[in-house]
Amino acid sequence: MRRSLVLRTNPTVRQTQAILVQLDRTLRERGAMTDRAPAGELIFRMPPPWKLARVGWLALITRGTATLSAWGGGPWRVSYRLYFGALQGLSGLITLGMAVLGLGWPRLALLSAVLALWIIGYGSLHLLAAHHFRDLVSDVITGVTERRAAPRPEQEGAAATSQQPE
C-alpha cells in the first residue's frame, strides 16, 4: 500500500531535490543500500539482520520506495511504499511451527493462536516500523523546508546595515 506525507508548503525545485537527497543520506547512514530510478524514485533496501547498523525499528522493513510529486496539481507530497518481506517470512515460519506443534490442539484454539500471532505480532510490528519511517521522512521534510524559512545569519546582518541612516 502506498502512503504519503503532504508537505505544508510548496517546495522550490532545489528543495524537492534536497528532500530526496537528504532522505537518501539518512537511509545510507542507517546502513540501507539506495538507488535512484530514472523517474526520480528513491529505492532502498535495508541491511540484512546480520549486518544491521543501529536502525532500531526500521530493521523490520525489508525494502521500500519513495517519490516526491504533486499528484494532478494537488499539494506536494512524499509518497512511499514499504515492504516487510522478512517480517512476513518470520511470521509465516512461526505459523508453520505452531501448526505442527498444535496438531493435537482443538482447531479453534489453534486458529485463535495463529490469528493472535498475525494481529498482535505482525500487525503491531508493521505499524510500529511504518510509524518510525513516517517520523524519519517527516524530520527530513521539516529539516529541508524549514531550514530556508529563516533568513541566514549573514543576510540578517546585511539587511540591518543596509537600513541604517547615513
Q: Helical element count?
A: 4
Low-confidence stretches: none
Radius of gyration: 22 Å
Helix residue percentage: 40-55%
- State the shape: elongated
Side by side, the strands of the main sheet go 1-5-4-3-2
Mean pLDDT: 84
- H/E series, N to C? EHEEEEHHH
Number of strands: 5
Computed structural class: alpha+beta
List the helices and strands and how they pair.
Elements: E1 2-6, H1 13-29, E2 33-36, E3 42-45, E4 63-70, E5 76-83, H2 85-101, H3 107-145, H4 153-162
Helix pairs in contact: 1-3, 2-3
What would you note in describing this structure?
- The protein is an alpha+beta fold.
- 50% of the residues lie in helices and 17% in strands.
- It has four helices and five strands.
- The chain has helices spanning 13-29, 85-101, 107-145, 153-162, and strands spanning 2-6, 33-36, 42-45, 63-70, 76-83.
- Strands 1-5-4-3-2 form a five-stranded antiparallel beta sheet, with helices on one face.
- A hairpin with a 5-residue loop joins strand 4 (63-70) and strand 5 (76-83).
- The longest helix has 39 residues, at 107-145.
- The chain is elongated.
- It starts with a strand and ends with a helix.
